[in-house]
Design a protein that fits this description.
The protein has five helices and eight strands. By secondary structure, it is α/β, with parallel strands linked by helices. Strands 5-2-1-6-7-8 form a six-stranded parallel sheet. It has a two-stranded antiparallel ribbon with strand order 3-4. Helix 4 packs parallel to helix 5. It binds pyrazine-2-carboxylic acid and zinc ion. The site of pyrazine-2-carboxylic acid (VGL) has 9 residues, from helix 4.
């Protein structure tokens, strides 16, 4: 009886040891971005950070997360929301409209925003701590005065391409990891359009922050899941 018990304890001990090994063993199951993967850092600009014109709550928290995981990527693309003055997505362009109300434009319903990310302004610059020196392309979007572009692939009419899809395809990219601001607008639309263009798509949740307007965050995750976008955490990625 006594020895059986000791045997049992020894067996449990080995299980414990196995348990200790588990995190190491699990490293093998992390996602390792390959030469045909790209990291997209969406709109990590002053406008979307505390102190900017359209601040996303805790927006600056994405910066260290994106910087950290960037070491896992050979290919990096950065986007910038890049509006003309008096852009059609600005509430100020319409008499009697306030920010966060909507209006109908030729391509459908447009949320109206405070003036933000105007071309060439400090507000439209990338966050000073975003450290992605190996990024190969900066793609600017939303520059047509009468049309918005949340997505880095397709403008709001769903017909006008930014060129990013062609660029990535010509470079042999198959898998896209989306990070940045804001989860429920530019990140979500970029991720869904990447799927529509045939890429495998991951959104790195803790490398994004949301605006969350009238339930837009929950709706965005639902719509992304329906299109086959995979939701992961930065810790799921093998870095180094
Ligand atoms: C964005 C609202 C308006 C974004 C851009 O980057 O998510 N949101 N313009
Ligand atoms: Zn915008």
């Amino acid at each position: 009886m006594k020895t059986d018990r000791r045997k049992l304890l020894t067996a449990l001990g080995s299980l414990g040891a196995l348990g200790a090994v588990a995190p190491w063993a699990m490293a093998a199951s992390k996602i390792k971005p390959g030469a045909n993967s790209v990291l997209i850092a969406v709109d990590v600009q002053n406008c979307f950070i505390e102190g900017g014109t359209l601040p996303v709550a805790k927006g600056s928290e994405v910066v260290p997360v994106i910087n950290r995981i960037s070491a896992a990527f050979e290919n990096i693309v950065v986007t910038q929301d890049w509006h003309t003055q008096g852009h059609a997505s600005f509430a100020s362009a319409y008499g009697g409209k306030k920010p966060f109300e909507t209006t109908k434009l030729s391509y459908g319903t447009q949320v109206l925003w405070p003036d933000h990310c105007v071309q060439g302004t400090k507000d439209a610059e990338l966050h000073k701590d975003l450290a992605l020196p190996s990024a190969q392309l900066i793609i600017r979007k939303g520059f047509h005065p009468k049309m918005d572009s949340y997505s880095a692939f397709m403008e709001a009419d769903a017909k006008t391409a930014t060129g990013l899809g062609g660029y990535l395809k010509q470079r042999g990219i198959k898998t896209v990891f989306v990070t940045g601001l804001a989860t429920d607008f530019c990140v979500a639309w970029t991720a869904m359009d990447a799927r529509a263009a045939g890429f495998e798509v991951y959104v790195v949740e803790d490398a994004c922050r949301a605006i969350d307007l009238n339930g837009s965050l929950a709706a965005a995750w639902k719509n992304m899941a329906a299109k086959g976008v995979k939701r992961i955490q930065s810790d799921d990625i093998q870095v180094g």
